[in-house]
Amino acid sequence: MPWLQLKIETSAEMAEQIGGMFTANGAQAVTFVDAKDTPMYEPKPGEVMLWPDTQVIGLFDASDDMPAIIKRLGNAKVLGKDFKYRLEPLEDKDWEREWMDNFHPMQFGKRLWICPSWRDVPDPNAVNVMLDPGLAFGTGTHPTTSLCLRWLDGVDVEGKTVVDFGCGSGILAIAALKLGAKNVIGIDIDPQALQASMDNAQRNNVADRLSVFLPDNQPTLEADIVMANILSGPLLELRSVITNYCKQDGLLVLSGILAEQVPRIETAYQQHFNLEPTAIDDEWARVSGQRIR
């Protein structure tokens, strides 16, 4: 189906109101994007953060009467009759197919490969994680996940109990199991993430060693390895929870951290962990260490 994109640049204060006007006029979807290149990180729970200069994009069916829609928008006091806009066609593609075609097997460290479930593995003798991300985050393409996978490939997980805090698609949990972990406990706030983790675990024949929980139901235990690839805000707020999962001499790896946020993370965790040198990939960082006796 052919689509049209209607784009209007506005302020953060007006963006949601304009988005509502798009929806009221038949937009199938409304997106807010940065109009100027302004960094914006980590909204608080329930908070919607928009850039000072925000572009509102409405997706309309190409058969919609766009002149009439634009006229109705202009009649509103919010925009006025002479408001500036861009109306562009959106190429008609099978976007899911497009994404699948561009998701290739990737190697992390010496042994570990992440392979899309719809592609052949490049090295049958490697440790291959077959992944279908579904609706959950985590394919290995983002630097934060890549940093954790490379770290995981370089440590001894054989026979260990592992916690994957913020498990997403289950990519780290399943990688740990395929590398020899005894069992993994996955925790996430999103039920769809837990379902994606279990689906991917079944695809990799390790579901019998993976248990998943929402935070309200998370178990009490001490693990040999704790992984938390989330964001710096939750890493700080949940420091005691994450720390208490890690037994004495256990290993910890944290990511989802911007390089500029590393000092705060290190200050928060160095009381209980001997921290290793921070690893940096692009603007993202990985903090890791061993629990102090």
Automatic annotation (TrEMBL):
InterPro entries reported in the protein's UniProt record: Ribosomal_L11_MeTrfase_PrmA (IPR050078), Ribosomal_PrmA_MeTrfase (IPR004498), SAM-dependent_MTases_sf (IPR029063)
Catalyses which reaction(s): L-lysyl-[protein] + 3 S-adenosyl-L-methionine = N(6),N(6),N(6)-trimethyl-L-lysyl-[protein] + 3 S-adenosyl-L-homocysteine + 3 H(+)
Top EC group: transferase
Entry's Gene Ontology molecular function annotations: methyltransferase activity
Protein's cellular compartments: Cytoplasm
GO cellular component: ribosome
Biological process (GO), any one: methylation
Record has Ribonucleoprotein as a keyword: yes
EC number(s) given by UniProt: 2.1.1.-
NCBIfam families documented for this protein: prmA
Name of this chain's protein: Ribosomal protein L11 methyltransferase
Species of origin: Alteromonas gilva
